Amino acid sequence: MANPTILIVNGPNLNMLGKRQPEVYGRETLADIETAARSHAASLGLDVEFRQSNHEGDLVDWIQGARGRCAGIIVNAGAYTHTSIAILDALLAAEVTCVEVHLSNIHQREEFRHSSFVSKAAKGMICGFGSHGYILALDALARLIRES
Ligand code: CA2
């Protein structure tokens, strides 16, 4: 039988990881994060679809496409976290277990980063652990899938 598929969706500017602001977001690139996530997912018996876009509609399309097909979604919506009702609605409509991830601890940062529309649709949220947050999110989803 095929492995369950986890969709990992990354939002705007996350393609810049490793190139600027290493003090906030670390030195790893998004490609490094993808490699680590794929390898950890394989050890858990999961397949990964890993995506990034700077465009809100792409994120909405990918989340919609997960409905009935993916066993879980990991979302780091970048700045759209704090603004996008469209992404929230797509997550609610998808009816796929969602774990929200942020590299930085958004609660230690500016006030406008403290609220998240994504959180309203997420089973849980992991922030402040850098790229390891994606690994923790895969562990959480693997356990939820096993239990379901
Ligand atoms: O901490 C996170 O993962 C964030 O989702 C990152 C977003 C930010 O808007 C959220 O509030 C928290 C920003 C991603 C931008 O990434 C960059 C990486 C390197 C250089 C510039 C931006």
Q: What this model shows, in words?
A:
The structure is a single chain. It is built from 5 helices and 5 strands. With 148 residues, it is an alpha/beta fold. The chain has a single domain (5-147), classed as Dehydroquinase, class II (Rossmann fold, 3-Layer(aba) Sandwich). Helix 4 links the parallel strand 3 and strand 4. Helix 3 (56-65) runs parallel beside helix 4. The longest helix has 16 residues, at 132-147. The chain is globular. It binds ligand CA2. Residues 13-14, 16-17, 20-21, 25, 76, 78-79, 81, 102-104, 106, 113 line the site of ligand CA2. Ligand CA2 binds at residues 13-14, 16-17, 20-21, 25, 76, 78-79, 81, 102-104, 106, 113.
Give the topology:
Layout (H helix, E strand, L loop, with lengths): L4 E6 L11 H4 L4 H14 L3 E6 L3 H10 L6 E5 L8 H10 L3 E5 L21 E4 L4 H16 L1
Parallel strand pairs: 1-2, 1-3, 3-4, 4-5
Helix pairs in contact: 2-5, 3-4
This protein binds ligand CA2.
Which range does the strand content fall in? Answer: 15-25%
Q: Low-confidence segments, ≥5 residues, pLDDT <50?
A: none
CATH topology: Rossmann fold
What compounds are bound to the protein? ligand CA2
Named at the architecture level, the CATH assignment is: 3-Layer(aba) Sandwich
> What is the number of independent domains?
1
Structural class from helices and strands?
alpha/beta
Residues in helices, as a percent range: 25-40%
- Tell me how many strands there are: 5
CATH evolutionary superfamily? Dehydroquinase, class II
A few lines on this structure:
The chain is an alpha/beta fold and 148 residues long.
